[in-house]
């Protein structure tokens, strides 16, 4: 079952006071530093972390819940919480997953709940399913208590209470009763996030990797050589890859030897065509472009790909070829792109007709130009 993201609603997370909008097959967000573009990207990562079982850990890494909460004013009786909500669609079926995290509750100095004082606490989780105009709640969690819908549609307690740091989405396993939950979890785990692919001397991109048939690039890019070898030697489907390399580096050639135990790759350049430069010798920009090619042109793209500032360390001449790879990938996968580069955003618009969303700050909160409170954009009519 393949899912696409229909809409998101993020509330109370860093600069995202409350923002809700529909998501297309190709979404491009462009804006200056400090407008909160990365918070939009990071909100999606946290939803995937809920499926992985690392939601509380990821918030703790950000400095804890107090650091991640919206710091502006909120209604007097509204609790301090992070609210992340995503709508998914598969064929005619729709799912909505929501998670809320809040601060630990205390009474008379005692901690209420089954967690530690400083940890982010999962307060609410719900999963709803709708089809043919009918909606049912598959999962409902309030604090440690979880109820699930049985085959008759009635909700029953699941059983074991969850710890404050655990997510029901990652923890509950019951193939007979939780097929919808399992399907959503699998869909979220298939997402790929590519941000800050390391190109330093110790980067995994610069080293050979085990020769295993690899259809999709890992988020850290460590299996890039195997992705290239799979395209060239197993799928025999490397024409687009080689064209994208030649477009970015005219006259250069990507060299992918038939692997034995380890897979590797290199490049030749027109000024010295007989010399193969191994991955360890390539410039940061060249290696980063190749990693993005692996992410966007691999044999099997994940259903959802998020890119955060992929233009970093790339020469300006590489932005138009990068735009071409992004647009090609959007025909096979849903793409979410956050960028500083107006040049990249404009090139994508020229190739696809998809206008970028401009990210702005409005009274301290992240917003998108033209976004209406209904969740659609002025001009969509």
Mean pLDDT: 91
Q: Count the DSSP helices.
A: 10
Query: Given the helix and strand composition, which structural class is it?
Result: alpha+beta
Number of distinct beta strands: 21
Strand adjacency order, main sheet: 2-1-4-5-8-9-10-11
- The end-to-end span amounts to 31 Å
Helix content: 25-40%
CATH class of the largest domain equals Alpha Beta
How many structural domains does the protein architecture include? 2
Instruction: State the CATH architecture of the largest domain.
Output: 3-Layer(aba) Sandwich
CATH topology of the largest domain: Rossmann fold
The oligomeric state of the chains shown is single chain
Low-pLDDT residue intervals, each spanning 5 or more residues: 107-111
The global form is globular
Report the radius of gyration as a whole number of Å. 23 Å
Task: Name the beta content range.
Answer: 25-35%
What profile does the largest beta sheet have?
8 strands, antiparallel
GO molecular function, one term: ATP binding
Protein name: ATPase
Domain ATPase AAA-type core: 27-346
Organism: Labrys okinawensis
């Amino acid at each position: 079952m393949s899912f696409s993201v229909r809409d998101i609603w993020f509330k109370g997370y860093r600069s995202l006071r409350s923002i809700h909008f529909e998501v297309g097959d190709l979404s491009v967000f462009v804006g200056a530093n400090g407008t909160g573009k990365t918070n939009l990207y990071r909100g999606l990562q946290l939803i995937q972390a809920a499926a992985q079982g690392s939601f509380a850990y990821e918030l703790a890494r950000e400095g804890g819940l107090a650091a991640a909460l919206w710091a502006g004013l909120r209604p007097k009786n509204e609790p301090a919480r992070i609210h992340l909500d995503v709508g998914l669609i598969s064929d005619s079926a729709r799912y909505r997953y929501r998670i809320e995290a809040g601060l630990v509750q205390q009474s008379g100095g005692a901690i209420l709940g089954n967690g530690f004082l400083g940890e982010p606490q999962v307060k609410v989780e719900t999963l709803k399913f709708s089809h043919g105009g009918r909606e049912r709640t598959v999962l409902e969690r309030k604090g440690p208590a979880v109820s699930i819908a049985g085959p008759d549609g009635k909700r029953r307690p699941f059983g074991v209470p969850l710890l404050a740091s655990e997510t029901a989405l990652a923890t509950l396993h019951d193939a007979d009763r939780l097929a919808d939950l399992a399907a959503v979890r699998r869909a979220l785990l298939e997402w790929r996030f590519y941000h800050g692919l390391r190109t330093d001397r110790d980067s995994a991109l610069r080293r050979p990797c085990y020769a295993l048939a690899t259809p999709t690039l890992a988020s850290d890019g460590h299996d890039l050589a195997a992705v290239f070898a799979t395209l060239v030697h197993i799928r025999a489907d490397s024409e687009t890859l080689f064209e994208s390399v030649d477009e970015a580096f005219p006259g250069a050639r990507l060299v992918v030897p038939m692997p034995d135990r380890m897979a590797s790759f290199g490049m030749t350049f027109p000024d010295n065509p007989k010399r193969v430069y191994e991955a360890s010798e390539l410039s940061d920009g060249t290696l980063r472009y190749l990693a993005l090619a692996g992410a966007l042109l691999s044999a099997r793209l994940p259903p959802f790909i998020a890119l955060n500032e992929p233009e970093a360390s790339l020469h300006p001449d590489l932005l138009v070829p990068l735009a071409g790879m992004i647009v090609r990938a959007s025909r096979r996968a849903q793409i979410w792109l956050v960028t500083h580069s107006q040049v990249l955003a404009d090139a994508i618009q020229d190739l696809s007709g998809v206008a970028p969303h401009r990210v702005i700050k409005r009274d301290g909160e992240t917003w998108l130009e033209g976004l209406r409170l209904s969740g659609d954009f002025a001009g969509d009519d």
